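Re: the request from the purification team.
They wanted to know what the chain is likely to look like in 3D before they choose a buffer screen. I agreed to run a prediction and write the result into the notebook, where they can find it.
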Amino acid sequence: GALALVVTALDNRITACAAAHPALSDMAGYKAGRAGGYPHFFTKFDGMDTPEKINTMAYFDVVNFARQIEVPVFMTWGFNDDVCPPTTSYIVYNLLQGPKEALITPVNEHWISSETRHYIMKWIKAQLR
């Protein structure tokens, strides 16, 4: 999910993006009292809470790329995901600038069901020109 969104922001040849469970999103969320994104630098690694490291994280945080995306985006995430907390996906989704659609699966953790895969493929097919 993260790579799909970052590449979409960087490459203007991309006309639509489907992303599932984006990691690397709102990584510094812990600093604001929110659940931060994978890989959870502030809870799983020592010595990460420095201004230099926080600034470096921003270079590859999906939140900062989402603001640049204007093409249609389909995102899906699990409401029970403890790898990429749903709050981090909501933040990315809310910052997208173009048409967007979300499928939030209440029972899913960090996995995609066959029904969700089917829905993603239908969405991609509808985007083809």
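For the purification team: The beta strands are 17-20, 73-78, 100-105.
Please add any questions underneath this entry.
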